[in-house]
TrEMBL record:
Gene that produces this protein: LOC111302057
Name of the protein described by the UniProt record: Phosphatidylglycerol/phosphatidylinositol transfer protein DDB_G0282179 isoform X1
Gene3D superfamilies in the record: 2.60.40.770
Annotated CDD domains: PG-PI_TP
Species, as recorded: Durio zibethinus (Durian)
UniProt xrefs under Pfam families: E1_DerP2_DerF2
UniProt KW Signal keyword: yes
Protein backbone atom coordinates (compact mmCIF):
# COMPACT_ATOMS: atom_id res chain seq x y z
CA UNK A 1 0.00 0.00 0.00
CA UNK A 2 2.83 2.41 0.79
CA UNK A 3 4.27 2.13 -2.72
CA UNK A 4 0.82 2.71 -4.24
CA UNK A 5 0.37 5.85 -2.13
CA UNK A 6 3.87 7.05 -3.06
CA UNK A 7 3.17 6.48 -6.78
CA UNK A 8 -0.12 8.35 -6.45
CA UNK A 9 1.66 11.32 -4.83
CA UNK A 10 4.38 11.28 -7.48
CA UNK A 11 1.73 11.37 -10.21
CA UNK A 12 -0.69 13.80 -8.57
CA UNK A 13 1.76 16.48 -7.44
CA UNK A 14 3.22 17.23 -10.90
CA UNK A 15 -0.29 17.31 -12.39
CA UNK A 16 -1.40 19.80 -9.74
CA UNK A 17 1.67 21.95 -10.33
CA UNK A 18 1.03 22.00 -14.09
CA UNK A 19 -2.64 22.88 -13.59
CA UNK A 20 -1.66 25.92 -11.46
CA UNK A 21 0.52 27.14 -14.33
CA UNK A 22 -2.53 27.23 -16.61
CA UNK A 23 -4.88 28.82 -14.06
CA UNK A 24 -4.03 32.44 -15.04
CA UNK A 25 -4.77 31.66 -18.68
CA UNK A 26 -8.22 30.35 -17.84
CA UNK A 27 -9.14 33.77 -16.44
CA UNK A 28 -7.44 35.82 -19.16
CA UNK A 29 -9.58 38.25 -21.14
CA UNK A 30 -9.73 37.96 -24.93
CA UNK A 31 -8.26 40.89 -26.84
CA UNK A 32 -7.76 41.82 -30.46
CA UNK A 33 -5.42 44.17 -32.25
CA UNK A 34 -6.87 47.32 -33.83
CA UNK A 35 -5.22 46.35 -37.11
CA UNK A 36 -5.09 42.59 -37.54
CA UNK A 37 -2.29 43.02 -40.10
CA UNK A 38 -0.40 45.64 -38.10
CA UNK A 39 3.24 44.91 -37.44
CA UNK A 40 3.37 46.32 -33.92
CA UNK A 41 6.62 46.75 -31.97
CA UNK A 42 4.78 45.71 -28.79
CA UNK A 43 3.02 42.34 -28.88
CA UNK A 44 0.30 41.73 -26.29
CA UNK A 45 0.43 38.31 -24.67
CA UNK A 46 -2.60 38.63 -22.40
CA UNK A 47 -5.00 40.86 -20.49
CA UNK A 48 -6.13 40.18 -16.94
CA UNK A 49 -8.85 42.16 -15.15
CA UNK A 50 -9.28 42.04 -11.40
CA UNK A 51 -11.94 41.80 -10.20
CA UNK A 52 -13.73 40.42 -13.20
CA UNK A 53 -16.42 41.61 -13.66
CA UNK A 54 -15.43 45.07 -12.47
CA UNK A 55 -17.47 46.38 -9.53
CA UNK A 56 -18.61 49.97 -9.90
CA UNK A 57 -17.37 52.25 -7.14
CA UNK A 58 -14.47 49.87 -6.38
CA UNK A 59 -10.87 49.86 -7.68
CA UNK A 60 -10.14 47.67 -10.69
CA UNK A 61 -6.78 46.56 -12.05
CA UNK A 62 -6.08 45.97 -15.74
CA UNK A 63 -2.83 44.04 -16.22
CA UNK A 64 -1.41 43.67 -19.72
CA UNK A 65 1.38 41.17 -20.34
CA UNK A 66 3.40 42.14 -23.40
CA UNK A 67 6.75 41.84 -25.10
CA UNK A 68 8.88 43.99 -27.35
CA UNK A 69 11.79 43.41 -29.71
CA UNK A 70 12.99 47.00 -29.25
CA UNK A 71 14.00 48.95 -26.16
CA UNK A 72 11.48 51.71 -25.33
CA UNK A 73 12.52 54.76 -23.33
CA UNK A 74 9.10 56.35 -22.93
CA UNK A 75 5.91 57.36 -24.66
CA UNK A 76 2.16 57.66 -24.13
CA UNK A 77 -0.67 55.31 -23.23
CA UNK A 78 -4.10 56.41 -24.44
CA UNK A 79 -7.12 54.61 -23.01
CA UNK A 80 -10.50 54.98 -24.72
CA UNK A 81 -13.63 53.46 -23.20
CA UNK A 82 -16.89 52.81 -25.06
CA UNK A 83 -20.28 51.74 -23.69
CA UNK A 84 -22.44 49.91 -26.25
CA UNK A 85 -20.25 51.36 -29.02
CA UNK A 86 -20.53 54.98 -27.82
CA UNK A 87 -17.24 56.64 -26.80
CA UNK A 88 -17.65 57.80 -23.20
CA UNK A 89 -14.19 58.36 -21.71
CA UNK A 90 -10.54 58.95 -22.63
CA UNK A 91 -7.40 59.08 -20.50
CA UNK A 92 -3.83 59.94 -21.46
CA UNK A 93 -0.92 58.65 -19.36
CA UNK A 94 2.82 58.67 -19.63
CA UNK A 95 3.86 55.13 -20.58
CA UNK A 96 6.33 55.15 -17.67
CA UNK A 97 3.40 55.66 -15.25
CA UNK A 98 1.96 52.32 -16.39
CA UNK A 99 5.22 50.32 -16.37
CA UNK A 100 8.88 50.69 -15.42
CA UNK A 101 11.01 52.59 -17.90
CA UNK A 102 13.11 52.14 -19.84
CA UNK A 103 11.45 49.00 -21.17
CA UNK A 104 14.09 46.47 -22.14
CA UNK A 105 13.80 44.02 -25.02
CA UNK A 106 11.69 41.08 -23.86
CA UNK A 107 8.65 40.64 -21.64
CA UNK A 108 7.10 43.39 -19.53
CA UNK A 109 3.84 44.21 -17.77
CA UNK A 110 1.61 47.28 -17.98
CA UNK A 111 -0.64 47.79 -14.99
CA UNK A 112 -3.49 50.30 -14.95
CA UNK A 113 -5.60 50.89 -11.85
CA UNK A 114 -8.96 52.62 -12.09
CA UNK A 115 -11.64 53.35 -9.51
CA UNK A 116 -14.92 53.72 -11.37
CA UNK A 117 -17.53 56.09 -9.93
CA UNK A 118 -20.46 54.51 -8.08
CA UNK A 119 -22.89 55.90 -10.67
CA UNK A 120 -21.22 54.00 -13.55
CA UNK A 121 -23.98 51.99 -15.24
CA UNK A 122 -23.58 48.20 -15.23
CA UNK A 123 -23.13 46.53 -18.58
CA UNK A 124 -20.62 45.70 -21.31
CA UNK A 125 -17.76 48.06 -22.12
CA UNK A 126 -14.90 48.10 -24.61
CA UNK A 127 -11.46 49.43 -23.73
CA UNK A 128 -9.06 50.45 -26.48
CA UNK A 129 -5.43 51.02 -25.51
CA UNK A 130 -2.96 52.69 -27.84
CA UNK A 131 0.72 52.89 -26.93
CA UNK A 132 3.00 55.31 -28.74
CA UNK A 133 6.73 55.78 -28.33
CA UNK A 134 8.90 58.85 -28.37
CA UNK A 135 10.19 57.96 -31.83
CA UNK A 136 7.60 55.42 -33.00
CA UNK A 137 4.09 56.71 -33.67
CA UNK A 138 2.28 53.53 -32.67
CA UNK A 139 3.86 50.77 -30.59
CA UNK A 140 0.61 48.81 -30.37
CA UNK A 141 -3.16 49.20 -30.36
CA UNK A 142 -5.60 46.64 -29.00
CA UNK A 143 -9.12 46.34 -27.62
CA UNK A 144 -10.88 44.12 -25.13
CA UNK A 145 -14.32 43.89 -23.59
CA UNK A 146 -15.15 43.94 -19.91
CA UNK A 147 -18.27 44.06 -17.77
CA UNK A 148 -19.19 46.28 -14.88
CA UNK A 149 -21.56 44.98 -12.26
CA UNK A 150 -23.42 46.61 -9.39
CA UNK A 151 -21.50 47.21 -6.16
CA UNK A 152 -21.85 45.43 -2.84
CA UNK A 153 -25.52 46.39 -2.50
CA UNK A 154 -26.39 44.34 -5.59
CA UNK A 155 -24.67 41.32 -7.02
CA UNK A 156 -26.26 41.15 -10.42
CA UNK A 157 -24.16 41.08 -13.55
CA UNK A 158 -25.80 42.87 -16.42
CA UNK A 159 -26.94 40.66 -19.27
CA UNK A 160 -26.03 43.41 -21.74
Amino acid sequence: MDTLAAQFKLTLLPLLAISFLFLPFLRATDFKYCDSEGNYVVKVDGVDISPNPVVRGKPANFTISASTGQAISGGKAVIDVSYFGVHIHQENHELCEETSCPIAVGNFVLSHNEALPGFTPPGSYTLKMTLSGEEILQLTCFTFNFKIRLGASGSLVSDS
